[in-house]
Amino acid sequence: MSPRHVILNLFQNLSNDQRSSLQTRTSLYYFQHTYGFGAWIDIENNLGLRKRLRIVGYEELIGMKDYISIDSPIAQALLKKQVGDEVEVKTPATTLTWKIHNIEYQK
């Protein structure tokens, strides 16, 4: 039996409450470890430049140097990525590769 079938059999043997709890925890883990709107992210590009950024709506950008618009090329490339992922961001001037070092949501 493949590992996938073993896991499916285990899941099918859980009660509805246990399944619900497992699905909730899995979703929470994914949410906490995936970059999305409002999260802080630590990234480094292939040139060694490190940044700490937060994706926000355009109305929150005024006076906030570490905030980037959800519509920006880098924000679009980083959405739904996880720690350790690398993304390529193309701008009119150049193409850079960014590696994600940390993701955190404010509590």
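Next protein, fold it too.
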Amino acid sequence: MKCVARILTVCALAAGACLSPSQASAEDTLLVQDHFIPRLGASVYSNPVIYGDGVVISYLHPNSPLRRMYSDYLGYFHADPGDVILMANGARIRDVHQLARIIHDLQGVLYITVRDTKTGKILSGRTQL
């Protein structure tokens, strides 16, 4: 898998406020890696601040299956960069490697749950790989 280094500014969790890049010190900045998952058509990374609570989508290819998900309740919907993949095929996603393992051998339909970071809503649906 092709990995790209990215800088992530960490939120000041105790204070409950996020630091702006100009306020962040070297101790507040962590190096994380994007992992491109070809079958998903997306780059994702494990967020060390929310480790164990999904992976963050950093890039979506125009033909990504995450751009055409379906829910019986919502109809068609899509994920955006910044959204968090919480579950895949019923398994809670803890890191990028777990998501890649689930998708690697999967044929057909992927059942997925994402958190929309703009609205805070949890959306569940399915998409064809």
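About the second fold: The domain at 3-128 is CATH 2.30.42.10 (Pdz3 Domain).
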